[in-house]
């Protein structure tokens, strides 16, 4: 299983929110590149980079941070947050992202998301399926929908999606454990899907449980920054 550390960006700085609430923001490092290099030095090979300003403004904002990290590390970066147009997508790939996560766009403009899948291929486009009480949440979790997460994912698997990042919004940033049932249900309904768990990871036991489930990857954020898991421990999982 891939360990995928997360860097969330607001105003060019590495931060973490609690349950997607911009009023519950904690800044960790004014230089995200330093954080990314620490991950690389620990032997981790992937990075989940989120433009929180972009998610709020519905356009890519922090592309320079992406460009800097991609240029100064060899990390395989998946980028999310604010990718709402063909131009946004082009800029993100030009700045060095290997994969781009589309969540809100897949809900609100499915034709556009499907065109991205067709043009860039299923290895480059990740479906973002963030849920609150098993219903899809969009726009940096600022908007709830009535779309059931399992139906949403299944629909896109039929259209060729191979990768999904799914966050249980109710768990994110609370360090109370991931939503194991959410991932089991996704596995049951879409057994060939590469599922990346996100949100709630609080210790190595959580990570080991997800690995035992056979997930493709797990995104780890706050647990690293708050010292609940060490980079040395995570390095033992390097795939």
Descriptors:
EC 5.3.1.16; 239 residues; histidine biosynthesis; 11 helices; alpha/beta; 29% strand; eight-stranded parallel barrel; 13 strands
Structure description:
The protein is built from 11 helices and 13 strands. With 239 residues, it is an alpha/beta fold. An 8-stranded parallel barrel has the order 1-4-5-6-7-11-12-13, surrounded by 6 helices. A 3-stranded antiparallel beta sheet has the order 8-9-10. Strand 12 (194-198), helix 9 and strand 13 form a beta-alpha-beta unit. Helix 1 runs parallel beside helix 3. The protein is globular and about 40 Å long. The relative contact order is 0.15.
What is the C-alpha radius of gyration, as a whole number of Å?
16 Å
The residue ranges in which pLDDT falls below 50 over 5 or more consecutive positions are: none
Strand content: 25-35%
Secondary-structure content class: alpha/beta
Describe the global form.
globular
What's the gist of this structure?
This protein is α/β, with parallel strands linked by helices and 239 residues long.
Task: Outline the fold blueprint.
Elements (H helix, E strand, L loop, with lengths): L1 E9 L2 E6 L2 E9 L2 H10 L4 E6 H6 L5 H10 L3 E5 L5 H9 L4 E4 L1 H5 L1 H11 L4 E4 L2 E2 L2 E4 L4 E6 H10 L4 E5 L12 H10 L4 E5 L5 H9 L4 E4 L1 H4 L5 H5 L4
Parallel strand pairs: 1-4, 1-13, 4-5, 5-6, 6-7, 7-11, 11-12, 12-13
Antiparallel strand pairs: 1-2, 2-3, 8-9, 9-10
GO molecular function, one term: isomerase activity
Organism: Nibrella saemangeumensis
Pfam families: His_biosynth
